[in-house]
Specification:
This protein starts with a helix and ends in a 28-residue tail after the last strand. It has a 22-stranded antiparallel β-barrel. Strands 1, 2, 3, 4, 5, 6, 7 and 8 form an eight-stranded mixed sheet that branches. The protein has about 700 residues and is mainly beta. It has six helices and 36 strands.
Length: about 700
């Protein structure tokens, strides 16, 4: 088959897929009163402002921890050095529509401590609208937890076991349960679970220090919700609790002061997070009108101890407390403008306080007051959809930090600023489910409190030095994007993010000491070109006439999905090189409806990630999953193998100083396991599906295409 014929056949296939989905939707609408409605979840859904990845029915993603699932998403880079990037944009992590407000040092542990089968889906919002805080920076990752609310008691149990076998056998398990109930007065939901994870990490710091770390992570979580109907109005009450505990033993050796040393270190880290939310939803006769009042309070406590076994004394004793309270109002209603339209506006007031201590002595007291309001218009004119909005933010940030060099408390650099953050989008609908979009938004990113914190360290050794920088300034982003999408699975796009005062990590070496620091860069540009499309295997051996008769249900097709991107980081003081990102996901339906999924991720080496150059690919792994449903689809069992060839590792060097610093690390990435999910049947056959009440913040709204 020639290349031109292949692309022509694929184009016809995409058209047939679009037509088939529309026809199925029309048939369901006609028969909705006489049959049970079964909505298929899309593995990947493209919208104008976001990409949505389903976790609930994707065994290759929902086995293991949330962090392990995130690492398999095409276009996403997650590492200790580069942070979390999607298509070149730094991600701000939300859960159920609310920012986690977790320092970068604790984020990975938090995500590793949460089982992936507790996640419904993950939204990557590349173009946050005016309703999102301007501090969302480049993009938002919104992690949406499971929902399964019905008008009778229901329960879903999920479990996972996997192991690694390097120098010794290590186990990882998680269990969770989701309970839902509703009567004529109120409804409630509880989602709770636990996680146990043993892991290994080997690292090399510029041939000065070799560190072998054996870790045990234990986590528990509980999310609860109650909804009470007050006439037409509704009151939602939510309470979430998370606890993570990390025990680690590190054996390190190296050279310090010209002498060889060995050090055996024990680390104990524990964090607690509590959050309560109350939402009052005012209902109107016109269901398109929405008015929400929401108040929330969260508190996150963490402790970190490091003890050298030779001396039996703590060399680090760090603690922190973060308290965040806010109140917001959101209103939207239809607007008679052109063919149709909508106007949205609202306001937010938030107060944040963060304190850290070393050996019980206060060394950082950070306070932030934020008041904001937004206004956004959406309208449609024939085949053109338009969004125009702005958000006004007022910041008042102050505090003090202890300067260990001068042995005194000093005021933080104050940040008091009022600024507008506009956003605009235009989308031209070329055909049904085929559109071209242009987007722009201005955002701000405040320095993470963890990089302001003088305690900014998670390991202290003879060759390591790490400290925060309380003088960092906020980053202002101008984000531009052009994107052509078709039938949710096909897209090609280009985006560029221009950042002023970008906060970057720099690593340098002075003698036998590796220094980790943070600094502002005057300007950073990140260019990202990306494309994604599926190729059904049937086009290689099936006549075109027969191909058009196929059932275009993606869950029943054999295909390979190809994602590719090129990314370039431009820095003001050095010449940089770009890198390629490749992801191949193949699905094959085997006999007995067994689904086989193979996922391969690869990033080319020698490209720049800020001030680092990858000597080996950041991502290089092959993951395999076999899954099958039993008992009328109530029981789902999966067998999986991750990083089959044990090729996932990190090797890079820092170019922010001379001499360059070489860093490498390898964790026990090759694992094998089994996962299952069992939906206990309800006794009420007429149970109605109800809205999820586990707290989330309009995750399906926004963008140019309304949620279906």
């Amino acid at each position: 088959m020639t290349t031109k014929l292949l692309f022509a056949t694929a184009a016809l296939f995409f058209f047939q897929l679009s037509f088939s989905q529309e026809k199925q939707a029309e048939t369901k609408e006609k028969d909705i009163e006489s049959v049970n409605l079964i909505k298929r979840k899309k593995a990947v859904e493209q919208k104008a402002d976001r990409t949505i990845f389903d976790f609930s029915e994707q065994p290759q993603l929902n086995s293991g921890s949330v962090m392990e699932g995130i690492n398999k998403l095409p276009g996403l880079i997650a590492s200790d050095v580069a942070g979390m990037l999607y298509q070149g944009k730094q991600l701000d992590v939300y859960m159920d529509g609310r920012p986690l407000n977790i320092s970068s040092n604790e984020l990975n542990s938090f995500l590793e401590g949460m089982p992936a089968n507790s996640i419904e889906k993950i939204e990557i919002i590349t173009q946050p609208g005016a309703e999102f805080p301007a501090t969302s920076g480049g993009a938002i990752m919104n992690i949406i937890t499971n929902r399964n609310s019905k008008s009778y008691l229901t329960a879903t149990y999920s479990a996972n076991y996997n192991f690694t076998n390097y120098d010794k056998w290590r186990d990882r398990t998680n269990n969770s349960i989701n309970l839902n109930a509703r009567n004529k007065y109120f409804g409630w939901q509880i989602n709770a679970g636990q996680n146990y994870r043993e892991s290994l990490m080997d690292s090399n710091q510029d041939d000065l220090a070799f560190i072998n770390t054996d870790r045990i992570n234990r986590g528990i979580f509980a999310k609860s919700a109650v909804t009470i109907d007050l006439g037409l109005d509704r009151l939602l009450l939510n309470y979430d609790f998370y606890n993570n505990n990390l025990d680690a033993n590190s054996l390190s050796s190296g050279i310090s002061g010209g002498n060889f040393y060995t050090q055996n270190t024990y680390v104990d880290s524990e964090s607690y997070r509590n959050e309560a939310v109350a939402t009052y939803q005012k209902k109107f006769a016109d269901k398109a009108k929405k008015l929400d009042f929401k108040a929330s309070y969260s508190q996150a406590d963490s402790q970190f101890f490091q003890r050298n076994e030779q001396s039996s004394q703590n060399v680090l004793d760090n603690s922190s407390v973060m308290k965040v309270s806010n109140f917001r109002v959101d209103y939207s209603q239809p607007l008679k403008f052109f063919d149709e339209g909508k106007v949205s506006f609202g306001g937010l007031y938030e107060k944040q306080n963060y304190k850290t201590a070393s050996f019980n002595e206060l060394n950082l007291d950070y306070q932030k007051l934020n008041a904001a309001t937004y206004l956004e218009f959406q309208t449609t004119l024939k085949k053109i959809d338009l969004i125009l909005g702005t958000r006004a933010e007022n910041y008042d940030i102050s505090g003090l930090a202890y300067n260990y060099k001068n042995n005194r408390y000093e005021d933080l650099v104050e940040f008091r600023k009022f600024k507008f953050f506009p956003n605009a989008s235009v989308q031209y609908n070329l055909a049904s489910q085929v559109y071209f979009a242009l987007n722009y938004n201005k955002k701000i990113s405040l320095p993470s409190i963890s990089v302001l914190n003088p305690n900014n360290t998670t390991f202290q050794g003879p060759n390591s030095q790490s400290a925060g920088n309380p003088n960092l300034q906020p980053t202002i982003y101008d984000n531009f994007e052009a994107k052509l999408s078709a039938v949710d699975y096909v897209f090609i796009g280009y985006n560029v993010s221009v950042a002023k005062n970008q906060v970057v990590q720099k690593i340098s070496r002075v003698g036998d000491v590796i220094i980790n620091s943070q600094d502002n860069v005057s300007e950073l540009k990140i260019h990202n070109f990306n494309v994604g499309f599926p190729i059904p295997f049937a086009i290689f051996n099936t006549p075109l006439k027969e191909l058009m008769k196929f059932d275009m249900n993606p869950d029943k097709l054999n295909f390979v999905y190809i994602y590719s991107a090129y990314q370039l980081h431009q820095l003001p003081d050095i010449s940089t090189k770009g890198f390629w990102v490749f992801n191949f996901m193949a699905q094959i339906i085997l006999p007995k409806d067994i689904k086989f999924v193979a996922n391969y991720n690869y990033l080319t080496a020698k490209g720049n990630y800020y001030y680092f150059v990858a000597d080996k690919p950041f991502n290089n792994s092959l993951n395999l999953t076999f899954s099958k449903k039993f008992m009328d689809d109530r029981l789902n069992i999966s067998l999986f193998a991750d990083d089959v060839f044990n090729t996932q590792e990190t090797a890079l060097h820092s170019i922010s100083s001379v001499p360059n610093v070489n860093l490498s690390s390898k964790y026990d990435s090759r694992r094998f396991g089994i996962s299952l999910s069992y939906k206990i049947p309800t006794k009420n056959k007429n149970a109605k599906i109800d809205q999820n009440i586990l707290e989330k913040n309009k995750p399906e709204e926004g963008g140019l295409i309304p949620a279906q």
